[in-house]
Design brief:
By secondary structure, this protein is of the alpha+beta class. It has a single domain, classed as Jelly Rolls. Helix content is 20%, strand content 30%. It is globular and about 45 Å long. The relative contact order is 0.29.
Length: 90
Protein backbone atom coordinates (compact mmCIF):
# COMPACT_ATOMS: atom_id res chain seq x y z
CA UNK A 1 0.00 0.00 0.00
CA UNK A 2 1.36 3.45 -0.85
CA UNK A 3 1.84 6.23 1.73
CA UNK A 4 -1.15 8.27 0.53
CA UNK A 5 -3.45 5.24 0.82
CA UNK A 6 -2.11 4.63 4.31
CA UNK A 7 -2.78 8.24 5.26
CA UNK A 8 -6.32 8.14 3.87
CA UNK A 9 -7.01 4.89 5.73
CA UNK A 10 -5.80 6.41 8.99
CA UNK A 11 -7.95 9.51 8.47
CA UNK A 12 -10.96 7.29 7.75
CA UNK A 13 -10.31 5.10 10.80
CA UNK A 14 -10.05 8.13 13.07
CA UNK A 15 -13.07 9.81 11.43
CA UNK A 16 -11.12 13.03 10.89
CA UNK A 17 -12.86 14.20 7.73
CA UNK A 18 -14.64 17.51 8.24
CA UNK A 19 -17.40 17.34 5.62
CA UNK A 20 -18.14 16.37 2.04
CA UNK A 21 -18.20 19.07 -0.63
CA UNK A 22 -19.79 18.50 -4.03
CA UNK A 23 -18.82 20.83 -6.85
CA UNK A 24 -20.51 21.35 -10.18
CA UNK A 25 -18.43 21.35 -13.35
CA UNK A 26 -16.38 24.60 -13.60
CA UNK A 27 -17.24 25.59 -10.01
CA UNK A 28 -14.36 26.94 -7.92
CA UNK A 29 -13.24 25.31 -4.70
CA UNK A 30 -10.70 28.08 -4.06
CA UNK A 31 -9.90 31.39 -5.73
CA UNK A 32 -6.86 33.63 -5.71
CA UNK A 33 -6.59 35.59 -2.48
CA UNK A 34 -8.30 33.01 -0.29
CA UNK A 35 -6.53 31.28 2.58
CA UNK A 36 -6.67 27.50 2.36
CA UNK A 37 -6.82 25.75 5.71
CA UNK A 38 -7.87 22.36 4.33
CA UNK A 39 -6.51 19.50 2.30
CA UNK A 40 -9.13 17.87 0.09
CA UNK A 41 -9.57 14.27 -1.06
CA UNK A 42 -11.04 13.87 -4.53
CA UNK A 43 -13.70 11.16 -4.34
CA UNK A 44 -15.09 11.53 -7.88
CA UNK A 45 -14.38 13.71 -10.87
CA UNK A 46 -11.32 15.86 -11.41
CA UNK A 47 -10.03 19.27 -10.44
CA UNK A 48 -7.22 21.52 -11.56
CA UNK A 49 -5.00 23.99 -9.77
CA UNK A 50 -4.01 26.96 -11.89
CA UNK A 51 -2.72 30.52 -11.84
CA UNK A 52 -3.56 33.43 -14.10
CA UNK A 53 -0.85 35.79 -15.29
CA UNK A 54 -1.60 38.92 -17.30
CA UNK A 55 -2.97 37.08 -20.32
CA UNK A 56 -3.07 33.33 -19.73
CA UNK A 57 -4.08 30.56 -17.39
CA UNK A 58 -1.33 28.13 -16.40
CA UNK A 59 -2.43 24.77 -15.04
CA UNK A 60 -0.08 23.61 -12.29
CA UNK A 61 -1.63 20.29 -11.29
CA UNK A 62 -4.63 18.05 -11.79
CA UNK A 63 -6.40 16.14 -9.04
CA UNK A 64 -8.18 12.89 -9.84
CA UNK A 65 -10.07 10.23 -7.88
CA UNK A 66 -8.23 9.33 -4.64
CA UNK A 67 -5.82 12.28 -4.94
CA UNK A 68 -5.23 14.83 -2.21
CA UNK A 69 -5.36 18.42 -3.42
CA UNK A 70 -4.84 21.84 -1.79
CA UNK A 71 -3.43 25.29 -2.34
CA UNK A 72 -0.22 24.27 -0.61
CA UNK A 73 1.30 27.76 -0.70
CA UNK A 74 -1.57 29.00 1.43
CA UNK A 75 -2.02 25.87 3.53
CA UNK A 76 1.62 25.80 4.65
CA UNK A 77 2.12 29.56 5.11
CA UNK A 78 -1.39 30.58 6.21
CA UNK A 79 -1.28 33.39 3.66
CA UNK A 80 -3.58 34.20 0.72
CA UNK A 81 -3.01 31.92 -2.24
CA UNK A 82 -2.12 32.79 -5.82
CA UNK A 83 -3.88 29.62 -7.00
CA UNK A 84 -7.36 28.73 -8.13
CA UNK A 85 -8.84 25.25 -7.70
CA UNK A 86 -11.63 24.46 -10.16
CA UNK A 87 -13.78 21.38 -10.79
CA UNK A 88 -13.38 20.01 -14.30
CA UNK A 89 -15.59 16.95 -14.06
CA UNK A 90 -18.29 16.12 -11.55
Amino acid sequence: MNPISNLIDRINNENLWDREIQLERNEYLKVKGSIDTNIYLVINGSLRIFVIDEYEEHTIRFGYKDNLIASLDSFLNEQPSDFYIQALKK
